[in-house]
Amino acid sequence: MTHDRATDRNAEWGGHVLFAILLAVGVVKSSTEPHAVVSLIGAALVAGWYLVGAVASARGHRDRAGLWVLVLTAGWAGLVAVSDDYVWLAFVLAILCWRFLRRPPAVVAAVTITVVSVVGVWATEGFTVGGVIGPTIGIATAVAVTEAFERITRTVEERDRLLDELVQTRDELAEREREAGVLAERDRLGGEIHDGVGQYLTSIIMLLRADQPDAALTAAQAALSESRRFLKGIDAPVPADGVSAALARQTVASSAEGLPTAFAEHGARIDLPDDVQLALLRITQEALLNARRHAAASTATVTLTHLPGEVHLDVVDDGIGIPADRAGSGFGLRSMRSRVAQCRGEFTVDATPGGGTTIHARLPVGGRR
Predict the structure, then answer these.
(1) Does 193 reside within a domain?
(2) Tens-digit pLDDT profile for residues 311-354
(3) Within a 13 Å sphere around the CA of 228, how many CA atoms are in the beta-carbon half?
(4) Given CA atoms 140, 145, 148, 153 in this order, what sign does their dihedral have?
(5) Which of 97, 127, 157 is the last residue of a domain?
(6) Residues of the chain whose pLDDT is less than 50?
(7) Which CATH number do you get for residue 277?
(8) Domain Histidine kinase, which positions (predicted)?
(9) Of 183, 192, 205, 216, which residue is least crowded by CB atoms under 10 Å?
(10) In a domain, 233, yes or no
(11) What is the pLDDT of residue 187?
């Protein structure tokens, strides 16, 4: 909370000083009157009671402030009955009543204080217009100032509450963003391992099973290079000779690993951003790996289609498809979908049990629709 308690303390001390001055003035002026002793005793009692309330308020005990101010007002009325020199304490009392009483009893107290003040002046000095207007306007002004102060205080408190909520909301958003960043980075690292080193390791196993040690050694060297690149925090390189040639090589490698795979390309080639080329390559690698490992496919086809402003990739196999209860649950499919989403494209999987699988990705280029 940023509530400025110093403002409250200054206002309270201002009220204490004003009360003490007005009470002292009353004591001095009434000291020559016939009931000076009674006036002095009454002033001492009122001062003592005021001190009790002031100390309690300073210590934060304000639960009985209403009773305190009512007793104080009654004591003041008694003083006014002895001497009208204490009438001017009415301003301080009006402020206290408006501050510590609920509105209906505060209004009654303000009216009562005004009446006592007017009657006190009238009883000793006779009726005068000034004797009515003076106390009335003074008390009304004290009430208005107190009300304005109360409203400003409530506004400040409401502002502080909203600021606290804003700070809390900001902290919660920062924490959520941090958690989202951690999850995104974990997903990115998982994707790099799965689509990079993981692909090569799988190829090594398949090539060894197919008794192709030379090809397995080449894949192992590629896996080592991929691991070093990954540890250095370097993004996977885009194909130096273009994505079309890279996809053609992938189909050749897939055929060598036991899945006859064809490559077809349609449309006039267009310049593709690095992230789009890398996404096309990784999706093809993952789709062909899934066709070999999980779909028991006998053939597969990779088709790359260039259209104005976008490129399409289709990887089709004739395997067993994907069971409905596992569609989209694997890390490979999630990684492919994530790569396409990062390129602001569209990704679909058409997999009918027993009817093969079609992986389709549409990636915008240029304007990135």
Answers:
(1) no
(2) 999 999 998 887 666 655 567 788 888 889 888 999 998 887 77
(3) 5
(4) negative
(5) 127
(6) 1-3, 369
(7) 3.30.565.10
(8) 280-367
(9) 183
(10) no
(11) 75
